[in-house]
Amino acid sequence: MKLIIFDWDGTLIDSADRIINCMQQAASDCELPVPGAEAVRNIIGLGLPEVFELLFGGLDDHQEAQMRERYKHYYIDRNETPTEFFPGVIEGLQRLREQDYCLAVATGKSRMGLDRVFEETGLGEMFDHSRCADETRSKPHPLMLEELLQESGVGRERALMVGDTEYDLEMAAKAGVASVGVSYGAHHPDRLQAFRPKLVIDHFSELECWLKGLPD
């Protein structure tokens, strides 16, 4: 493997509770049916248009603009729900960089949102490439991965997608890219197994161990 592509929310950082809380508050402000926690957890990783379609059956332009504004307001300005990196992530990414892997992010976040967390966490310099849902097709369409492959110059047979949702792994399967699932994110491991990942890990360090066991 040369290129390792990571999902962000639920794979590297534990942000599910914050996403759920902000989506519920935004829906209440917009006088929309407030979705349950599991319903919101299920859509983590998708772009907002796909989120709104699944949660609310689609919104008109005014409602969508209002929901975007309120969700952004709560997520960035008002919500104090903590978001921490999962155990071993920061150290693991550093070691992968030292081993000359090319690292990338493929996320349902907007470009503004990803750039903001890159700056806040100081981890932006870890990644050579990134794609966001508002720049291309949302997961599980494979275009996000195809663009990262083209940009990096790495063949799909030397690329790996690491994610916590079936949308991540379905995207990888459609792009012809191998995948690794994580068990500690938004979707139950049984849902991930349907897309035949190489393995499903319980701790980030297991990814490093598996990579070390691959033939050169």
What features would you describe in this structure?
This protein is α/β, with parallel strands linked by helices and 216 residues long. It folds into 2 domains: 3-14 and 86-212, HAD superfamily/HAD-like (Rossmann fold); 16-78, DNA polymerase, domain 1 (Orthogonal Bundle), CATH 1.10.150. 47% of the residues lie in helices and 14% in strands. It contains 10 helices and 8 strands. The chain has helices at 16-29, 37-43, 48-56, 61-78, 89-98, 111-121, 143-152, 166-175, 189-193, 205-212, and strands at residues 3-6, 13-14, 84-85, 102-107, 129-132, 159-163, 178-182, 199-201. The chain has a 6-stranded parallel beta sheet, sandwiched between helices. The protein has a two-stranded antiparallel ribbon with strand order 2-3. β7 (178-182), α9 and β8 (199-201) form a beta-alpha-beta unit. The chain is globular. The model has no long low-confidence stretch (mean pLDDT 93).
Number of structurally distinct domains: 2
What share of the residues lie within helices? 40-55%
CATH class of the largest domain: Alpha Beta
Can you tell me the residue ranges where pLDDT is under 50 for at least 5 consecutive residues? none
Indicate the proportion of strand residues: 5-15%
- The dominant shape is globular
Based on DSSP secondary structure assignment, what is the total number of beta strands? 8
Strand order of the largest sheet: 5-4-1-6-7-8
Distance between the termini: 8 Å
Superfamily at the CATH H level of the largest domain?
HAD superfamily/HAD-like
Largest sheet: 6 strands, parallel
Write down the secondary-structure element order: EEHHHHEHEHEHEHEHEH
| Secondary-structure class | alpha/beta
